[in-house]
Amino acid sequence: MAVWIISLIAGLFLLRMIVRFIWSGTITFHVNRIKEDPNEERSAIFLKKMKMVWSVPNKPHLWIGLKEAYFVILNSRHIDFETKLSIYQLLTKRRVYGLRKPYKRLHSKAIAEPSA
Description:
Layout: H1 2-36, H2 40-52, H3 60-74, H4 81-93
Helix pairs in contact: 1-2, 1-3, 2-4, 3-4
């Protein structure tokens, strides 16, 4: 009777390791894609894939990569405010600390110098 309990626990532990390995690969892949070329399409895919990751594995390079990807998205002019806000909310829910909340700029156009 105890043998099947031990094998069940070992199987669940192995399944957990496999799932965390897949999540690590997913995070790394999409972070690198965002860093290459941040645009609206890739940020929407990043948001969709990060929703599939229930928790971020406790590896410093993953946390740092998520923060760097967020700041690339935050500073990009090609990504909508709503997408930035939803990525911020998702990453704070996943306990990625040190993120600034995006804010909507009312006067985002460049100020032209007055003509004389």
